[in-house]
Amino acid sequence: MSVYYNELIRLSCKAANNNCVPVSAMIIYKDKIISKAYNLRDKTNNVLDHAEVIAIKKAAKRLKTWNLSECELYVTMKPCNMCTSIINEARIKKIHYVLENKKYENIKINDNDRIEYIIEEDENDDYKNILKDFFKNLRKK
User: Fold this and answer.
1) What does each of the 141 residues of the chain score in pLDDT, given as a tens digit?
2) Helix, strand or coil, per DSSP, at residue 48
């Protein structure tokens, strides 16, 4: 995970530098990164521009199929309801994530039995600091 994690951290910093919530995602196919993205929702003013959605679109284009059942998703934060539905539609079976999504803590996320969630808790210190700094700076504005 550490190779993927380092890239997720780099991408999350790019999102923060673009004044977007620092969430990043990558699609892995046959142990290779085939797409990567970071949250652009606040920059583009497009509610669909979550990191997971952008990464899925790029992977589908690269593999020339919407069926990403042979792929895994690595993401900094557990996906929201919208992203979980899209991940399900793309047939991705494994999601590796670094941090729970506190925003949806009391809301039922449509966890699907077909999707295996793997939390990478050992990897979350740097990412927690990026999130903390982002929201601290946001409150200053």
Assistant:
1) 578 999 999 999 999 999 999 999 999 999 999 999 999 999 999 999 999 999 999 999 999 999 999 999 999 999 999 999 999 999 999 999 998 877 655 455 555 567 888 888 776 788 888 888 888 887 776
2) coil
Radius of gyration of the chain (CA): 14
Report the half-sphere exposure of 101 (CA within 13 A, side-chain side): 20
* Neighbouring residues of 132: CB distance < 8 A, sequence distance ≥ 6: none
8 Å CB contact between 134 and 22: yes
47, burial (CB in 10 Å: exposed 0-12, middle 13-18, buried 19+): exposed
Active site residues: 52
23 CB-side CA count, 13 A: 22
Q: What is the C-alpha separation between 38 and 78, in angstroms, rounded? A: 14
- Cα dihedral sign, 17-96-88-72: positive
Structure-block tokens of residue 29: 């196919």
Is residue 23 within 8 A of residue 76, CB to CB? The reply is: yes
